[in-house]
Structure prediction request, 659 residues.
Amino acid sequence: MSANLKKQFFQPYTGEKARISRAYDYLILVLALFLFIGSFHLHFALTVGDWDFWIDWKDRQWWPLVTPLMGITFPAAVQMVMWEKFRLPLGATLCVAALSIGTWIARIFAYHYWNFFPINMVLPSTMLPSALVLDVILMLSNSLTVTAILGGSAFALLFYPSNWPIIGMFHEPVQYANGQLTVADLFGFQYIRTGMPEYLRIIERGTLRTYGQYATPLSAFCSALLCTLMYTLWWYIGKWFATVRYLTKI
Amino acid sequence: MKTLFIKFMVLLSLALSLNTQTANAHGEKALEPFIRMRTIQWYDVQWSTQKFAVNEEIIVSGKFHVAEDWPVSVPKPDAAFLNISTPGPVLIRTERYLNGKPYTNSVALQPGGDYSFKIVLKGRLPGRYHIHPFFNLKDAGQVMGPGVWLEIAGNADDFRNEVKTINGEVIDMETYGLSNGIFWHIFWGALAAGWLLWWVRRPLFIARYRMLQAGLEDELVTKQDKLIGKVILIGVPLLVLGANWMTINQYPKAIPLQASLDQILPLSAQVNAGVVEVDTLKAEYRIPERAMTFLVKINNKSDKPIQIGEFATANVRFLNKAVSMPISDNTDTMIAPEGLSVDNPAPIESGEERTMTIIAKDALWESEKLDGLIRDSDSRIGGLLVFYDSSIGERFISSITAPVIPKFN
Prediction:
């Protein structure tokens, strides 16, 4: 049984109660930040993995398909909790911001200082614009269906154009070894990765490119469709976790 | 109990710290022996130098034969990547050649094919590193070539890696695109932080939960909130698309990542070239003596008498001391200088066919974990048998293979 307050009897907290309530806010925020930095970053590393680790994996076909699809998971679940229980439209932005912090820490300390890769070779992608739009669509629509369809689609469709300003310059062509490479490919060739041979890259495979050579829009719309479903699935996962069964009085 | 536990932990920490050792290997012997012996058969591997400085280049070159008797449990080498084992990019690879052709991607190797390779490396981080050339074989693993210890002197800050794009722009690979990437992350991070702070500045969880339960939803999301939301809903996509459009115009020649497989044909036959034919009739491994005995039928079709000088497998060389020959090897290849003997040391005359017993005997079978072959699901041995003509001039190499019978006594 959840707490049930009546509008006419509602009294806001004041004095000591208000201060403790605010302290509780900060405590939860700090804990949530560390929780999402750790858990979302781990989830992202295990599911998106190399597509986001390396500049020469960020292709026009699989990267824009996989990254938003795996990236919308935690935001959907946290949005459900934050919106349904608190009317706070910041779940997606909070998650993705935490992910960005975790990713940057890993790229700087694990990849650069520990394993000597130049940071520009392991630049993370950004999903913050997608997350902001997802949050405001939920706030303005107050609807799971609209957010799943419009927000989920926007989350996927905005991903590649958000990141092209970051990675576009790495797709400049270079003449190398009697062939043509991108600067990103050249990073993969020059900066030796013992456990990462070139053939392991899952890039440019499959038939998505067959529609007039436009691989990216096809991948992005495919991702958009899947994101609507993934959003809904993870919304309910969030709902499953966010029980107030034991909250009887507040 | 608590004190005992603390003492135990302190002692454990001390014991672990006392036992700290530098890792001097990286799994060279971990791969099953039949894969190391019957896939990529390396020979003549040379390093141009082992001491150099940051920004200086070194070359590792050599040859390899792709075994005809490729293990059935190992996928065929349709995608193989000639790599360098390093602890991170302490060196960079500036050039790589297979059979004299420069290439950057993976290649399909042909079983039975012969190849020569050359890799040019440039010092990046000072230190002492154990480095191997090796092949990443798709779905099979890493087959190591002979390694060396390299000492790189100098200062890491002096490292430069400049590359010219097709447009003629010279870029520094160490910093290219970094400040731009950081800028965009900070830009979107600042907007996201602004959105989060906009909400976090107000009482959050308990207060909002109570208000929501009391039906005061309208007070939780104000008109001002919604106005800002609408600005974000329109402004962020416009910013994204605008920045994307500007980047497309800034880099109109950008191309997709390149994902082709290089095609390089093998050299004309260097191993099993048909001049000296070897048929392995039987192979026995005597465990107590650490000795592999081959019964082979040799047909010398050359116009010179020849002698067996060496048996090489999985970076181990068993040499016949009765045949003096130069050991051109500056790698960490394991050498048994007296490891090879034959039952009939007389040269095999031109046109002669002879059945001989060859014994490769040394503790290296055990220390290099090659004797594990007899416990593998595939217990066939492979390796290169090297012949020299009697004047120590020409060299003939045969790739031999046979099932191994263990002898326990």
Q: What stands out?
A: Chain A touches chain B through 97 residues (CB under 8 Å). Chain A has a mean pLDDT of 92.
